[in-house]
Design a protein that fits this description.
The complex is a heterodimer of chains A (241) and B (303).
Chain A lengths: L1 E12 L4 E7 L11 E5 L7 E8 L3 E7 L3 H7 L6 E8 L11 E7 L4 H12 L3 E8 L8 H7 L2 E6 L6 E2 L12 E5 L2 H10 L2 E5 L15 E4 L2 E4 L6 E3 L6
Parallel strand pairs in A: 7-8, 7-11, 8-9, 9-10, 11-12
Antiparallel strand pairs in A: 1-2, 1-6, 2-5, 3-4, 3-6, 4-5, 12-15, 13-14
Chain B lengths: L5 E3 L2 E3 L3 E3 L40 E4 L2 E4 L8 H13 L6 E5 L4 H12 L4 E7 L10 H4 L2 H14 L4 E4 L7 H10 L4 E4 L3 E3 L2 E2 L4 E2 L6 E4 L4 H14 L4 E4 L5 H10 L1 E6 L1 H5 L3 H15 L14
Parallel strand pairs in B: 3-15, 6-7, 7-8, 8-9, 9-14, 14-15
Antiparallel strand pairs in B: 1-2, 4-5, 5-13, 10-13, 11-12
Helix pairs in contact in B: 2-4, 4-5, 5-6, 6-7, 7-9
The chains are: A mainly beta (241), B alpha/beta (303).
Amino acid sequence: MKQVFYTVAANRPLTADVWEMALTGDTSAITAPGQFINIKLEGLYLRRPISVCRWDETGLTILYKVVGRGTEAMTRLAPGAVLDTLSGLGNGYDVAACPDHVTVVGGGVGVPPLYGLTRALIAAGKRVHAILGFNTKSEIFYEEQFRALGAEVTVTTADGSYGTKGFVTAAMGPADAYVCACGPEPMLKAVYGACADGQFSFEERMGCGFGACMGCSCETKYGSKRICKDGPVLRREEIVW
Amino acid sequence: MVDTKVTLSGIGLDNPVIPASGTFGYGYEFAELYDINCLGTFSFKGTTREARFGNPTPRIAECTQGLINAVGLQNPGVEAVIREELPKLKKCFHKKVMANVSGFSIEDYAHTCALLDKEEQVGWLEVNISCPNVHNGGMAFGVSPQAAAEVTAAVKEVTSKPVYMKLSPNVTDIAAIAKACEAAGADGISLINTLLGMRIDLKTKRPVIANTMGGFSGPAIFPVALRMVYQVYEAVDIPVIGMGGVRSAEDVIEMMLAGATAVEVGAANLVNPYACRDIVAALPATMEKYGIANLSDIIGKAH
């Protein structure tokens, strides 16, 4: 973890309520895809945790869904604005633990960290099947970006307006045995039941984001874990629903 | 050169800044961020007789200038704390630590305190009779002068270390409870714990916190905490540790003027992990700004 003051380089909507923000600054604390940053916003007390979509030596990109006062405030940040963040939080996905063929499964705003993960998996010589689930066609983002990385991409929409009709599990087959997933808990639970092994990223309301307050604890087969520090990624075999 | 030293029941502190229980774990994780020996001391995570997972999530809710938490005393239990947490702390913290203890019965408190009494690292016991987040746990003792006195007396019986009773603000007369603790032998009073509060999610139309209510802390409660420290300072002759919404060196000085010998910093650590280090660093210049040469001289000066 490192406190970093990032500068907003770009901030634009991708869909009606999902935005993409590019930040420049020190990314040395980010060591794995699936980690997050915790952002201090003017007028709000607690920081807002947002997963890192991708990063390089000069900066990072986050995608966020406008759901409340914090994310609404983020949409008003113009290029040049400086953000007080804690960077490189959480464990992230373990790329080395993944087999040669990995299926990444994202639902809605759970998709962003899987972009960085897919890039890392492909860089490590692994094949990736990306299943990206949305409610409807107008909510889809980043399909082309995943294809550009070299992943085999399947998009699902719950209403059938684009791609495979149904939830993400409708696109899962026998080849999708090892899954790295991120999305709402009902989706994670369904994916858990449809695969044999993998890594799952969880969401929880956090206090601090760095392991101090015990606000986001969950029970696992190996005792309680803090989603913010010991997670957000848990191995499939340790999850207790 | 200004002097930031204070003395808490015979044990000297380099400065009065103490991270509050529940916002600093058992210390060693913050030691990865900065040298925690710059602190006066710190109060470790509320520890109970048995291990506790705590409450269901969500346990946290945003508020204006603060937050509500309903963690529910998650901790590994006193035996694991002594076996695993204290040895890890010893490697990075060379001062006496304040042991924060909670319980569900008078026997619980006495048992846990008796075990911690044997630990050389522990300088003080801070006995939490004010946790709002566990059913029938803690706060029940803190809202009645008689029950508060009973816990105090039971703990005093099993320890030779100074005992600070941590009081709840969710009472009609905090001075009466402080006096009852003093009469039962308490060496000091710690206050305030969090204020009972809640939030409701407008989208789901349900409470945000799974446990419905929780403890409200943060800068918003500072004036309430300051007032109670002021009242308790007038009511008792034992030292007071003040806390509630403290986030700056100015707040530390204000708490001391109200009557605090030392000052705990809680919620601020969760937003800025360096908050206590920054407050310690800012103290000398802030003292100079207000013409304070010796911090211990200003305790209770507002009276």
